Amino acid sequence: MVDALLGPATRPFSEHIRAAIEVLIADASLDGTLVGEAVAAAAALPARPDAAEALAMLLAAGTRLVALTNSGARAGQATLEACGLAHYVEQVLGVDGVSSFKPHPAVYAYALRELQASANDVTLLATHAWDLAGAASAGIRTAWVRHGARGWPAVFPPPDLQADTLLELARALV
Length: 174
Hints:
The protein has 174 residues and is α/β, with parallel strands linked by helices. It is built from 8 helices and 5 strands; from the N terminus they run ααααβαβαβαββα.
């Protein structure tokens, strides 16, 4: 978010992940040789257990599925392929197309331009409140996957929809 505010963001998101992991490892006095493994693991996280079923349900209902990632488009595509969800997604939009990071307004405006859609026609599904706040600021409908008992920051506009799991949210959307 610092790069988004100070922009233009010229570093790939993976460099931010690496820097954060390096700080955590140093703060916890852990073995610094594990940084590479941690970065690789972050790029290949498994999908949530209900993700494939939820995305299949949304597709069957005629929903257009597009990923908007703080990674570059190629890295986002690779992550979706690694977790087995790439075939559900029509397109991966990365922040490399706009040289900023979410929640900067330029990222959501870029996505709407690329999709040739108005904000009223789009819903952003996410687990991060800050991402949904950015989308809401752009006029995009928001759907929050809580993944359990998590609180919503009172300073952000409340999500339009919310559920504990992606599958519950998909059911609410269709």
